[in-house]
Amino acid sequence: MSLVNSSPTWVQTHSIYNFTGTKSSSSHLYLCHPLKNKLPFSLFLPNPMTKPVIHFSSFSISAILTKETTNAPQEQSKSEKDQVFNLVAYMIEKGNSVNKALEDAVFLTDPLKIHESMRYSLLAGGKRVRPLLCIAACELFGGQESVAMPSACATEMIHTMSLMHDDLPCMDNDDLRRGKPTNHKVYGEDVAVLAGDAMLAFAFEYIATATKGVSSERTARVIGELAKSIGSEGLVAGQIVDVCSEGMANVGLEHLEFIHLHKTAALLQGSVVMGAILGGANADQVAKLRKFAMCIGLLFQVVDDILDVTKSSQELGKTAGKDLVADKTTYPKLIGLEKSREFAEKLNREAQYQLAGFDPEKAAPLIALANYIAYRDN
Q1: Which of 149, 181, 209, 213 is deepest in the core (most CB within 10 A)?
Q2: The pTM is what?
Q3: Could you tell me the CA-to-CA distances from 252 to 10, 232, 334, 340 in Å, in that order?
């Protein structure tokens, strides 16, 4: 399947892979597309390959993913319970650490208005998925939470900035975020723009000044990774293509995936790779973590698209059904709800396949977080 309406320059130069399995001659992106034909699945194969077998010895991984699983009866022996990874406890523990670090990092000082606006959105809650992924990736290679924390906080600062700007009337024009009025509804558009700008700048300052216990070379690599993941080849690339696609008829899957691999997946990838670098991963290990992160990044957006048409605004904490109202192209719109769910399952399997060679206990948080992204309900 090739891109339709390929006259715009960016479509021709950024095409990655078409869905017949052939490589585009014009591909030159730094992002790794998780659906290259060398991977063990494809949405469009009539007889997809079987799920890769991942051996984790006797160590089992459990995550409370939905209300239904929370209420499910548990039939486990004491020894099995000792081996189960408790994602909820992990997210609470690490999330509390991240929240405290964020609150300490961005404090109220002059000028008060800008710092109030920054703190309003930054401390409004959220799943803290990106910081948790950064910390988990660092710990996978024996690194300490304290080493990863400045980078983890920086990813959340930038993610929050992107939400503040995305909610503006000139972008998605949204009134609700994390169950609260969006930043510009409280502080005005001008302050919301400036607070987002301030958060973006401070994220890099915080990594540079607060990272301790690793070499300056690693810190510099982390800063470079983060900058690339959000710049004109990362998050901004996805955002501008998304903006330019409004009103475009017959948007295809490659087009849609370019947007999501950049707008959503790039920062998730950056979060994981930054943690891996800080933890001391070698080049091959970083490559595996990069592929893992790109899969869960695309997975995150596929699930978002599904939730947008299956959940209420109250359940989501943000405006539901807005993509449908705006007639935006989504996975359910292009391939249907059931195929979107199948695609999400395949992305999750491929993500976890990348972790098969690592210590199962150290990889447990990343595996459980991938499952959480796949089966979350908000």
Answers
A1: 149
A2: 0.78
A3: 14, 22, 8, 14
